[in-house]
Structures are given as C-alpha cells and as structure tokens.
C-alpha cells in the first residue's frame, strides 16, 4: 500500500508518513482460527519503486506465524508453571489477574537476565494479588452430630472386635491357668466394660494398640496350643477389613454415608455455580469435610471489564438462599436413605460492608485483610457452634435455615428475601429473630431463623427410596 497515493489516511498511517514511511504491507496472523498478531513490512521507498512481489509474502507470514505461536506457547507454559508452582489451581473468575502477575514476573526475570531468557526461576515471588471493595457471602451445610456418630461407630467396631477374641479365649479351656492368657483375658474384660460404657479418642488409641500388640499376637499362640479353636481364629482374621486390618464395619458405613452426602451436596452446588456465574463473574470456593461450606466474593475489581452494581450482590444473595434450601432438600432426601442416617443444619453469614481480600502465596488461598475484614473471618470460624443468648441452645437446627447478621439493614434485606421465597414454597412458618451469645472477640450478633418447608424437602425426585447404592449412582452421574 502506497501512503503517498492514498487519501483519507488513518491516524496510524499519518504517523508512519511522519516517520518517513512511504509504503507498507500488512497481514493478520491467524492460527487455529485465533488472531495472534500482525505481520507488517514498511519501506521508505515508493510502492512503484519497490516490487513487493519479489518477496514471497505468504511464506514470510507462515514463518512469522510459527515463530509467534512458539513464543506465545512458551509464555503460556511459563505462566502456567508459575501459577501452579506458587498458587495451585485458581478459580476461573480470577485467573486473569494471576496470569497477569505471572507474566509480569517472567518478563522482569528475562529483562534482568537477558543471557538466558528461557530459564525459569519459579522461586521468584509474584506481585501481591489484592482485591478491594468485595462483598463476601458464606454458607455452611453442617452434618449434625457427625463426631458423636463416628464415636458410636468406633464403639460398635471395638465391641465386635473384643467380643470375638473373648469367645476364642473362652473356648480355649485348656489354656486356663496360663498366666499370660489370664492377664490378657482380664485386660480384655476391662476394655469390654470400658467400650460398652463410652468411647473417646484416647481410649480408641489405647485399646487399638492393645489389640494389635497383645491380643492378636496371642491368637497365633492359642491356635498352636488349641487346634480346636483354629476355625474361630480363621474367622476372626477374615472379619478384619483388608485396608485397615481391623474391624471396620460400622466406621465404613459411617464414612461412606458421609462421603455419599458430601458428594451429592458438592455436585449440586457445582452445577448451580455455573448458572450463578452467568449473572456476574465472582470468586467461588468450597470446602468439603463433614458437610460443605462455601465462600463467595463479588465486586468491581474482580471483573474489571464488566460494569458493577450492588444489584448483582443482592441477586447473588437471593441465589445463595435458594441454593441453601435446595442443598437442605438434597441432604434430607439422601440422608434418610443412607446406612447411617444423617441430618444437616444450614447457616448463612451476612456481611453488607465490603472487605479486602489478598491471596496468601504461602497458604495458597485468599484471606481477608484489614480490621473489619478480620472480624468477618472470625465470625465464620466460630459461628457453627453459636448458641442463642437467652436459652443456650444451638442456633442451628435440622430443617431450618439460619441467617447471621449484625446490622439492621442486613436483617431487613434478608426478611424480604425470606418473604419472597416463602411465597414460592421454600419456607414456611414465622421468621424468628434471636440474639446470639457472645463469641470470643465477636459480640453483637443476631440471627434470623426460618423453617424450610417440609413439603419442599420432600419434593423432587433427587433420590429414589429404593436405590441401594446411592454412592455408586452419584459417582456415575458426576
């Protein structure tokens, strides 16, 4: 293209003329249907004085495409390695800022070490990742009484374990009078009585150690001295769980029940999150233990290419309440079909004032920053055991949703949401407002309590009561 013969020059073309460029050739670089750059040749010669045809332009473009693609791939690999090394997996909503930080670090390293531009220095720190003015949402679906249920499962397994060994010793009448067997029988009776009464972590360790290091080795001796009890001893060894090498029937039922429920909850919120991201991009993370909790952060700095409005926060809050109701429904339906019946309690923490969050590279997660932000984090950590100030009872209860707040405007906003969802059949009954007993370093909290409609909990076809292997079904569906 000859600039000297062209009218209506663009700003860029005018700048080229000012630099003495008379003619230029330009072509887009497209690889795999993606635009990756521009190929350009400029000359101070007039178009009619320089035969561009002597150049195989298409060949040059192809070579530049290959070189550019390799460079982009190298940069992408460098960025990915740095993110994985220092940040592990990051949520898609904030991946852009981690890529930018990793790219800046890589460019800085190459600038300071031009002699080895390809060498990676993953130990070099990335710049701080900080988001200001974000609105947090937190919710938890807690399996009620999971510690007590696990303790009862351990108790049942130890009772069965000790009882089978006791039966072997009782049948081996020829060994009566043998001091070691009498000692072991006495200790065994003591532990049977202790396990029948109660069970705690300390006794679990002591009794488990006694079985492994004393009772089970003695069974080998008993089998040699009294051949008639060999079938009972063989049956004992067959009764042990291969993985744990101990009685693990009740505990396995408990663990599989918790795993099944957690899987159902986790699968649902993952699917629901896909829809929620369409409203406005936001950061989301979940943690699965005995139940499921989730953190959400939304704000203008998290999505700089989108116009932010407080309306999106309100929309996400309403979405969260609906989602918590559906999680309660799933927990109710799955929980009553498990080998160990499980119930859950649902709780949401409200924070209307925006906070600041920062990515902690050492812990590889986002954490709050600043005084008010820290107070919010303290509430999250301690709220699951909160009690009502006047009665001392736990604020959470199966079949109810609890909304913890500290400001009047927060209470009024969530009351409107509850009224709306009650009209749509998710809630029933009155809204109860209660004061919470002071927590360590946190005072002045209140809570709204509302019952999730029993008809809603029973609605839908999430789990068929006749399904025998819920865990397998959910895993296949995942």
Please tell me about this protein's structure.
By secondary structure, the chain is an alpha+beta fold. 49% of the residues lie in helices and 18% in strands. It contains 13 helices and 11 strands. The strands form 2 sheets. Strands 3, 4, 5, 6, 7, 8, 9, 10 and 11 form a 9-stranded mixed beta sheet that branches. α4 packs antiparallel against α8. The protein is extended, with a radius of gyration of 33 Å. The two termini are 57 Å apart.
Keywords:
478 residues; alpha+beta; nine-stranded mixed beta sheet; 13 helices; extended; disordered C terminus
Give the gist of this structure.
The protein has 478 residues and is an alpha+beta fold.
Helices and strands in order:
Elements: H1 11-18, E1 23-31, E2 34-43, H2 57-86, H3 95-112, E3 130-143, H4 146-171, H5 179-197, H6 201-225, H7 230-239, H8 249-279, E4 283-289, E5 291-298, H9 310-335, E6 344-349, E7 355-360, E8 365-369, H10 371-382, E9 400-405, H11 408-423, E10 427-435, E11 446-452, H12 454-458, H13 470-477
Parallel strand pairs: 6-9
Antiparallel strand pairs: 1-2, 3-5, 3-6, 3-7, 4-5, 7-8, 9-11, 10-11
